[in-house]
Amino acid sequence: MLSSPPKLYVDNVCMTFKTATGVFEALVPVTLSIPSGRFVSLIGPSGCGKSTIFNIIAGLLEPTAGKVLIDGVDATGTIGRVGYMLQKDLLLPWRSVLDNVILGMEIQGVPLREARERALSLLQRYGLSGFEYLYPSTLSGGMRQRAALLRTLLFDTDIILLDEPFGALDAQTKLQMQEWLMQLWSDFGKTVLFVTHDVEEAIYLSDEVHVMGTRPGCILESILIMLPRPRVRTSSLTPEFIAIKEHCLNLLTASAPALPEAA
Ligand SMILES: Nc1ncnc2c1ncn2[C@@H]1O[C@H](COP(=O)(O)OP(=O)(O)O)[C@@H](O)[C@H]1O
Ligand SMILES: [Mg+2]
Asked: Which of residues 210 and 21 earns the better pLDDT score?
C-alpha cells in the first residue's frame, strides 16, 4: 500500500549565514517529518536556529542545502504556503482588531465583506467579542496574541507556524492561552509548529517535541508525547509527564555551553 507523504517534510536543511567576519553555521542538517494535524514543538536555547527553521519553512529564507516538502511537493523558497506568526505579533497599529484579523484573507483575495463576516463570527466565538473595533494599543498582551493567532489561522493554509506566541505573557495569561490554543487546534484541525522556551508548555501542548541544541543548531532528539488527550492541568503532575520533562531538561543542560568559572 502506498502511504501518503507527511504534511510537512524538512529534508536535511542546513543554513550558513555570511557575516562580516566570515561564515556562521546556524543549522547543520535538520530533518523533521510532520504528519497532517499534528501539534509539534521545537524547544532549545536562544540562538539554536528555531526562528531560522521557521523562516526556511515559510519560504522567507533559502536554505544553504536541503529541501522543504509540503504534501510531498517541493516548496523550498516558496512563500504563502504556511501561516506564520512571527516572534513579535506585528499587529498593524492603525487597523482595528477586526481589520488586523482579516489581513491574511485580504492578501489571499477574499472579498472584504466576506472576510469581515468570517472574522467577526470567529472573534465572537474565540473570546474577542467587544474588541472587534478597538486598536491593538488598547489591548492587553493576551488579547493581542489572540488577535494575531486568529489572523494566522484565517490565512487559508493547512500548516501554521507559531514562534514563541506566549513568550511575553504573564504566567496566568499564558495558561489561559494554552487552553484557548488547544481549543482552536481541535476545532480547525491544522498542523501546528510551535516554538517555545518553556519545556512544560511544549510537552503539555504537543504530540511531538523536538529538542534542539546549539552551535551549530541541530535536533538533539525527537520525543513523541503519548499522554492522552484531552489534557488537563493535572496531566503535568503525572509520573509520565515529569519523566519526559526531566529528560528534555537533561538534554538541554547537557548541550548547554559551560558557564565561566566564578573568579
Ligand atoms: N541573517 C542572519 N545573519 C547572520 N546570522 C544570523 C541571521 N539570522 C540569524 N542568525 C544567527 O543564527 C542563529 C540562529 O538564530 P535564530 O534562528 O533566530 O535562533 P532562535 O530563534 O533559536 O533564538 C543565531 O546565532 C543568530 O544570531
Ligand atoms: Mg527565535
From this structure: 210
